[in-house]
Amino acid sequence: MRTQVAIIGAGPSGLLLGQLLHKAGIEAVIVERQSGDYVLGRIRAGVLEQVTMDLLEEAGVGQRMHQEGLIHGGFDMLFKGERHRIDMNKLTNGKNVMVYGQTEVTRDLMAARQAAGLTTIYEAANVQVHDFDTKTPRVTWEKDGQTHELHCDFIAGCDGFHGVCRASAPRNAIREFEKVYPFGWLGLLSDTPPVHHELIYANSERGFALCSMRSATRSRYYLQVPLTDKVEQWSDQAFWDELRLRLDPEAREHLVTGPSIEKSIAPLRSFVTEPLRFGRMFLAGDAGHIVPPTGAKGLNLAATDVKYLSSAFIEYYQDKSEAGIDHYSERCLKRIWRAERFSWWFTSLMHRFPENGEIGQKLQEAELDYIIHSESGSRSVAENYVGLPLNFGA
């Protein structure tokens, strides 16, 4: 079996890459170790930057997003019991974000791929990448009792933090930077109307909370919890009771509770791999970097990786130029580190770090007070949240 680009991983980054390459007339086969239903069942991010929206339109899958997505021009920051709005639209000359769940993005990309009759291999066991340091890379996997082999020009590693691609990179050629945070996010999804029409980020003495949504009838809430907590310790009632304690009186009054559809605890980490290219294998999305979810950057960073990578492949095949693939890692990493900085800063600002004591809380409150009373402080938050332009600092 042969193709031009072998994509490992059928999450949103792999699917988006496949769709952009298909639009450009470049062949790609996607190999995924999980089932399609499993991939769709992942509960993930839901805030899209303008760059990501534009990419989905370019890929031809933006119709449902525009019909069902919720445009947000701002969000609230809650501290010392009071909410303050960051007017992103005003502070960034008209830029917004869109709330549209990653599950829905994945569903749209899957449907487009299926409609085009493109090859996606699900439930591929023991996926391995070979010879990516040569001009003849290949991918092998096992399915239905047989070993299969795919020959290709390039391998795109879109297979996540635990995937085979980064793990296969030579240890002497790779550097990994990591910060693990001493808490996690306990998330609850429910078919209840959101407590507010925009997101609320809460810094309270009891810890961080986030009020988010997936639609006008489906809400997503998060609580900062110790890493030692287990989901089983948290009943729905205990979750709602704790959330109320971290909100302001108006939000408590408008909070509609209900049974959880999904509940899980996610650890928080900052992680970056350098470089993102190893011969003819390229890392994109979570395979190359992880951000804490506070800044809503994970899916958006993956999308911009894919933009750079698809452009590099198109340039290679259509213009016979290797400039794009040669500069892929450098271009991505510049953007990645900026997003990592914002996500780390926002996480440090909004969460409780018990080891910092009462003075830590006071310093956070002072910085929050500065941000909401300084137009330049508010603008910095807004610019980073809506997403820096692709050519920022170029």
Question: Would you write up a description of this structure?
Answer:
The chain has 13 helices and 20 strands. It has 394 residues and is α+β, with helices and mostly antiparallel strands. The chain has an 8-stranded mixed sheet, with helices on both faces. The protein has a 6-stranded mixed sheet with strand order 8-2-1-12-19-18. A 3-stranded antiparallel sheet has the order 3-7-4. The protein is globular, with a radius of gyration of 21 Å. The two termini are 40 Å apart.
Short key terms for the protein model shown above:
394 residues, alpha+beta, FAD/NAD(P)-binding domain, 8-stranded mixed sheet, 6-stranded mixed sheet, 38% helix, globular
Tell me briefly what this model is:
With 394 residues, the chain is an alpha+beta fold. Helix content is 38%, strand content 27%.
Task: Give the secondary structure arrangement, pairings included.
Layout lengths: L4 E4 L3 H12 L4 E4 L4 H6 L5 E2 L1 H9 L4 H6 L1 E3 L2 E5 L2 E5 L1 H4 L5 E3 L2 H14 L4 E2 L3 E6 L7 E6 L2 E6 L2 E4 L6 H5 L6 E16 L9 E5 L2 E7 L5 E8 L9 H10 L3 H6 L5 E15 L2 E2 L2 E3 L5 E2 L7 H22 L3 H28 L6 H17 L1 H12 L8
Parallel strand pairs: 1-2, 1-12, 2-8, 5-14, 12-19
Antiparallel strand pairs: 3-7, 4-7, 5-6, 9-10, 10-11, 13-16, 13-17, 14-15, 15-16, 17-20, 18-19
Helix pairs in contact: 1-6, 1-10, 10-11, 12-13
